[in-house]
Amino acid sequence: MKNGDVSAAIATASDCSGIGGSIDGYYDATTTPATGSVSQIAALANAPIVGFASAFGRTSAPSSPIGLTFANSSGEPGGELGETYCVPSEDWNLPITDATLNINANTVVNPGTRIIKRVSGDVYINNNISYSAASFKIDNVPLYKIIADGDIYINSTVTALSGIFETRGTIYTCAIPSGSRLVAPNGLQAATICKTNKLAVQGSFIAASIKLLRTSGDYTDKTKPGDYAETFTYSPDVWLQTLRSGGATNSTQPYDAYTSLPPVL
């Protein structure tokens, strides 16, 4: 994760019900440079955080691999956060726009365009979704957002996604066509088909569970540091688009003022 946090305490309701979750990855500090699952800023969870490094790339305190790790379980790195926390979402109150969503063509979102899909079922993403390279201002920040009750399946051929993808179910970053829909890969498919393409996400994934299934790259190859199968970049447009809408994607009222408050991780 570039420029952002990884959190396993996002509520999948408009209140703080349905919270919880752990972060479980693979991290090897014995290599130079260290390899595996990392975040440049913080890692937060209400349950254990295992095999995941925070503050990656920092050379001073708080330093990696656990300098910005906040878990809420005893005996774990960064454990004993001390209280249960969550980030509630009002997106679940938006009206349903689709029963099932199939994205079968490349989508480019231009400045000033806001696409919000509230889906009661599953989402199948077969093509790239990207923001236009054109410049934009605060009053015309592009937005692409999916809020689903079902699962989100991303075709193994997809290489780039921009936007916010939110679900009460599971996000599969590599899925295989099966008839008219996509399904999760088996072990052999994950090791072969899911190895073909990397996935770059500019934005955010929010889900009850996220299955990071791309297997491209080789963490043992010391000549290719940063050769990651999946990269998430939390870019400014993710939160800038909420400034023009009063913090809610279905609002047209702007903020009166905004400021930064501690802690700044």
The number of helical runs is 2
Total beta-strand segments: 18
Sheet with the most strands, sense and barrel status: 9 strands, mixed
- Our Rg estimate from Cα atoms comes to 19 Å
SS-based class: mainly beta
Instruction: Quote the beta fraction.
Output: 25-35%
Number of separate domains: 2
- Which range best describes the helical content: under 10%, 10-25%, 25-40%, 40-55%, 55-70% or over 70%? under 10%
The span between the termini is 14 Å
Write up this protein.
It is a single chain. The protein has 265 residues and is mainly beta. It has two domains: 88 residues, no CATH class; 161 residues, no CATH class. It is 5% helix and 31% strand. The strands form five sheets. Strands 8, 10, 11, 13, 14, 15, 16, 17 and 18 form a nine-stranded mixed sheet that branches. Strands 1-5-7 form a three-stranded parallel sheet, with no helix packed on it. Strands 2-6 form a two-stranded parallel sheet. The longest helix is centred in the last third of the chain and has 7 residues. It is globular.
